[in-house]
């Protein structure tokens, strides 16, 4: 008789022993992946319904993206911005065109792009709007998630993200999400920007009330305040349009992008804005060694090309309707509420049944990977290459988990 040795326990123990405990991962150790599926070290296949928090919108190892990365690996991978490389201009031109903006500034992580937007907004406030030195204010929303740097956690309202990391960066005013009157009341002559997620991801995929984003656009224009849309998780096809804010027919002054921009291969983020805004930066004021590196730009250019076809946005809208219909059908059968757009859903599970964490553990036992947010909410965000059969399979597994 042969004994089968499972590699998962040892791999989990090693990770647990040698890393800081800043995450609480599900007990799955991924070894390979393709499309919407991953395979663990023991050969078990799972359907990925998180997609790296939208970093994998085009699926794991999209062939076109992998080919672009391979080709670039054989040419040049890093120059720093001290020199220009031959992938840089084309990527920036393509991304600016996708955003309908004059220019972009590439960075690496989402948090870096948010920091970039904050610095640009402040400098624009001082140099263009005429705010007195050190007085700039930026309005943000309660329950926001914009990243983990010390400045960004300074305006988080999540105690886990914020406590013990002070002293905090001043200059931020928090208002309730989706409350236009509260934004209006918070605006002062020192307000330089309103920074918000068009759909709040970490908060549980919260879609703001109808008319909020359009009203915010009007208010920002009236009061000479920059409207900054953090589309790091919501953008690049996730909601059925290129940007989540497109659903409201709104164009912000600055887009903040990340995650899927790197095609699930490299960290690529960026801000996009017109010259009147991004043009305030001068040499030496901001930068990043890896920002806009050749590998990142080669992959990013392919990402932009994929989005230019509209195919992924269309898929997300079409399959998203199927996902949401399936989830709505579970209301009253263990699900309390469903929110979201396209292939993105926040699902509130009856807390009397189980926590979000327990739901995700039970889904993982049924070979579907998802992630909880707060309390009894789980979020579903499969790669946009997911098939109808995959969707139906995941919905059936969720229904089975809820039946207990
Ligand atoms: C809306 C939003 N902004 C910013 C970030 C931070 O991105 P990163 O983790 O790449 O720094 C995230 C990450 O989840 C996000 O969802």
UniProtKB/TrEMBL annotation:
Domain of life of the native organism: Bacteria
Pathway: Amino-acid biosynthesis; L-proline biosynthesis; L-glutamate 5-semialdehyde from L-ornithine: step 1/1
GO biological process: L-proline biosynthetic process
Record PROSITE patterns: AA_TRANSFER_CLASS_3 (PS00600)
Cofactor: pyridoxal 5'-phosphate
Entry keyword Ligase: no
InterPro entries for the chain: Aminotrans_3 (IPR005814), Aminotrans_3_PPA_site (IPR049704), Class-III_PLP-dep_AT (IPR050103), Orn_aminotrans (IPR010164), PyrdxlP-dep_Trfase (IPR015424), PyrdxlP-dep_Trfase_major (IPR015421), PyrdxlP-dep_Trfase_small (IPR015422)
N-terminal signal peptide: none
MF term (GO), any: ornithine aminotransferase activity
EC numbers: 2.6.1.13
Keyword annotations of the record: Amino-acid biosynthesis, Aminotransferase, Proline biosynthesis, Pyridoxal phosphate, Transferase
Top-level EC class: transferase
Family: Belongs to the class-III pyridoxal-phosphate-dependent aminotransferase family.
Name of protein: ornithine aminotransferase
Source organism per UniProt: Actinoplanes xinjiangensis
């Amino acid at each position: 008789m042969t004994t089968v040795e499972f590699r998962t326990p040892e791999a989990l123990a090693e990770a647990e022993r040698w890393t800081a405990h800043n995450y609480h991962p599900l007990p799955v150790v991924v070894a390979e992946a393709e499309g919407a599926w991953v395979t663990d070290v023991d050969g078990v296949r799972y359907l990925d319904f998180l997609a790296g928090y939208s970093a994998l919108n085009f699926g794991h190892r999209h062939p076109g993206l992998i080919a672009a990365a391979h080709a670039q690996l054989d040419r040049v991978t890093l120059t720093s911005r001290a020199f220009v490389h031959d992938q840089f201009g084309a990527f920036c031109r393509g991304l600016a065109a996708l955003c309908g903006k004059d220019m972009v500034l590439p960075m690496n992580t989402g948090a870096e792009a948010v920091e970039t937007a904050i610095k640009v907004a402040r400098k624009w406030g001082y140099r263009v709007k005429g705010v007195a030195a050190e007085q700039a204010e930026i309005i943000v929303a309660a329950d926001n998630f914009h990243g983990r740097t010390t400045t960004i956690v300074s305006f988080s309202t999540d105690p886990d993200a914020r406590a013990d990391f002070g002293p905090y960066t001043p200059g931020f005013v928090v208002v309730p999400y989706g409350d236009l009157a509260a934004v209006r009341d918070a605006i002062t002559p020192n307000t330089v920007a309103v920074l918000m997620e068009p759909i709040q991801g970490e908060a549980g995929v919260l879609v703001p009330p109808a008319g909020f984003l359009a009203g915010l656009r009007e208010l920002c224009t009236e009061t000479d305040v920059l409207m900054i849309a953090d589309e790091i998780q919501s953008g690049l096809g996730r909601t059925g349009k290129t940007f989540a804010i497109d659903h409201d027919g709104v164009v912000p002054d600055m887009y903040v992008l990340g995650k899927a921009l790197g095609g699930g291969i490299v960290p690529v983020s960026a801000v996009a804005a017109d010259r009147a805004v991004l043009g305030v930066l001068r040499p030496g004021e901001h930068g990043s060694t890896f920002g806009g590196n050749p590998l990142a730009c080669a992959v990013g250019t392919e990402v932009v090309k994929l989005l230019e076809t509209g195919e992924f946005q269309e898929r997300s809208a079409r399959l998203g309707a199927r996902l949401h219909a399936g989830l709505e059908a579970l209301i009253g059968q263990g699900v309390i509420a469903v929110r979201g757009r396209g292939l993105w859903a926040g699902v509130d599970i009856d807390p009397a049944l189980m926590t979000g964490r327990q739901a995700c553990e039970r889904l993982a036992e049924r070979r579907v990977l998802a992630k909880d947010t707060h309390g009894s909410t789980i979020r579903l965000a499969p790669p946009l290459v997911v098939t109808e059969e995959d969707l139906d399979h995941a919905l059936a597994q969720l229904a089975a988990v809820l039946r207990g």
